[in-house]
Write the structure tokens for this entry.
Amino acid sequence: MNKKVKILSTGHYVPPKVLTNFDLEKMVDTSDEWITTRTGIKERRIVEPNISSSDIAAEAARNCLNKVNIDINEIDTIIVATITPDMFFPSTACIVHKKLGGKNEPAAFDISAACSGFIYGLTLAEGLIRNGKSKNLLLIAADVLSKFTNWKDRNTCVLFGDGAGAMLLSATDDEEDAILSTYLGADGNYDELLYIPAGGSKMPATIETVEKSLHTIFMSGKEVFKVAVTKMVEAANKACELAGITTGQIDLLIPHQANLRIITAVGDRLGIPQDKVFVNVDKYGNMSAATVIVGLDQAISNGRVKKGSIVELVAFGGGFTWGATVIKL
Ligand SMILES: CC(C)(COP(=O)(O)OP(=O)(O)OC[C@H]1O[C@@H](n2cnc3c(N)ncnc32)[C@H](O)[C@@H]1OP(=O)(O)O)[C@@H](O)C(=O)NCCC(=O)NCCS
């Protein structure tokens, strides 16, 4: 059994509330000028307090399924990539199944690979479909990092935004295959350069952990920056090699959107002209796992890529984790 994989649809959702650099100027000692020149970010989207990852994941999934008129009850597998699950259990995937009105009994589970989560999820999805375990798979990436941001820490609070993206994949006997390659990597030795220290089994919530803001993101920006560029370039090259193409054949590169300087450096080192490098970091900041799938859905919706286009997604995140995939639309 070696099925081909088809991408039937993509979708996304970002919350309506916009937080601009000028809003942040009123919250911490920063400036629009500093944020713009160091990161390229001008604004980001933030959920309201009563909204969680499963809410925006369900919105992205609806957007994706509605485009092809497919009902949740036709889906046999739901995977949600998130590091901001609604709760430890049940999984956000199970909650999304309920929110979409599912009455069937699909496999449903979450995966945790930080900002590389969508590409990790796509690799799993590919495996499940190719070996006949899944026929219609809904892959969602959703994160609400605003809920785990220390809004008093200017080093981190300017970087992140909330968002969700979804992709519907199915098994096909067509000649055409949508996933030309995937490549994943990780190095746990970098675990404390980008992390949320408390809230898990190592350091469950106490008054002290809350007082010290240990339930929020800690990051060593400069170190993350260097490894991010190196590993995204390596992963992107590796995925091209596995797909049997050169970077020159890529119609659009969609890199993880953490910082415009990282995006530009990755494009340059891969020898891909900047007009073939997707950028939306100015409007959304770093949406963690959702970033690359939101980018892909936007690129499809605005006609930047179309049927037959070769697109490469590449991401990097906490762990550290990284990954890249080459797809043919
Ligand atoms: C975080 C990041 C934007 C900082 O940019 P940088 O050019 O490396 O800046 P530095 O770390 O050298 O900081 C320079 C100064 O700006 C200050 N600064 C940090 N955040 C600031 C802010 N929002 N506003 C104003 N000043 C700020 C720092 O305190 C530092 O001051 P100091 O020199 O007095 O100590 C950058 O390192 C980065 O993007 N790193 C990668 C982040 C990332 O990709 N994270 C997610 C990966 S998935």
In short: Residues 221-243 form the longest helix (23 residues). The chain is about 35% helix and 25% strand.
